[in-house]
Design goal:
Layout lengths: L3 H13 L15 H16 L3 E4 L4 E7 L2 E8 L17 E3 L2 E3 L7 H17 L5 E8 L7 H9 L5 E4 L2 E2 L3 E4 L1 E8 L6 E6 L9 E6 L3 H5 L8 E3 L2 E5 L15 H10 L5 H7 L10 E2 L2 E2 L1 E8 L2 E8 L5 H8 L7 E6 L2 E2 L5 H12 L8 E3 L10 E4 L2 E2 L13 E3 H19 L6
Parallel strand pairs: 3-6, 3-7, 7-22, 8-23, 9-21
Antiparallel strand pairs: 1-2, 2-6, 4-5, 5-24, 9-20, 10-18, 10-19, 11-12, 12-14, 13-14, 15-16, 17-18
Helix pairs in contact: 1-3, 3-10, 9-10
Amino acid sequence: MKDLKQFYEDLNTLLSFKSVKGEKSPDAPFGKEVAAALRFFLDKAEKFGFQTINYDNYGGEIVFGEGREIGIIGHLDVVPIGTGWNYEPFALTKDDGYLIGRGIYDDKGPMLSMLYCLKELKDSNVKCNVKFRFFVGCDEETGWQDVEYIKRKTSIPEYGFSPDGNFPVSYAEKGVFYVKTKIPEFKNFKDLQGGTVINAVCDSAQVTVTNKKVLDKVDYNKYGLTLDGDKLQSKGVAAHGSAPHLGKNAFLPLLNYMSSCGEDIKDFIDYLFLDKWGVSELENEQGKITLSPDLVKNGEMICDCRVPAPFTEKDLLSCLKKAPFKVTAEMHHEPVMVLKDGQFVNTLLNAYNEYSTVKGKPISMGGSTFARVFEKGCAFGPEFPDENNHIHEANERTKESSFLKMYEIYKKALFDLASMKEPF
């Protein structure tokens, strides 16, 4: 990177925006902090000499080059910070070889890296045979209203990638379903609460005790619970909803305790948390169907469910109907796949392999990324194999060496794509 000092200054500024979705206003559909982050990013692009478009603060676009179009898309909104941080979440912290901050890898750091890489391409005077259309999203973590709005305002390239997934390159993504069921009625408890967003494993849950006599019968300490007044509380470990095995769901010990106190919730636990319906038994090259009960809202337990192609909604529903209580499944994103050995995938893969001692192969992923905005889209980094960057968790981080390697991979990919003369 040519100007690392300036890059880190800009990264610190970008991380400083508390761009969690906030209250809507006429000029800030996702909150003032999100809009401010977008304006900063587009202003930076203009200073670099790029043409920019602000789609009414729903999102933005940065344009460079002429020819057939290649899309890039990422986002500047972030998930809530949750609990357990040892550092200031909304700032760039360097500690023991790591870069730390909310959004450092999801997705502010990669987005700023892509902007700087595009500037290096522009400043190089290398002939660019394509037109890069770099879309800047502002609502990826919640409803994707940004891309819906942008699609109403402009066209979207056929091919594109998102720096918001995993390396080497992802050619397929699981479909995303929201599985919902009503919370059972309790005899000795009420107001079960927990979770922050649907796509993050619940790291904190609580329930109100209405009959404190049960506390004398069963020791809540054995379940790792704490009591604050009449609130029985459980702490877990957050993780991305697509990989629930990496977290510890705070609902489960709480519900297990309530069951031991005589609550009739065994089926509720067995199906939602112990997979009695067998959804995880449906598995293919892209992995298993996963189901993570992450959020209680309006009296319902809402689960993040990921389904790999070619499995469909029908396959999922055939499992869910086994439960002895009503369950609904709402499709948020359908499963997608791109030609695994095509030129576009191989171009991105070759850029990764140029900087890797172990040569990678195209992969599939459980996370749902903006790559699916394109008809033929790939998620391309920033996470490296066998690295845990604590995305959607406390102390989100990356090794500085990995961050700088990511930058070089993105730069090579842009230069290689720019030099192509023939269609994919």
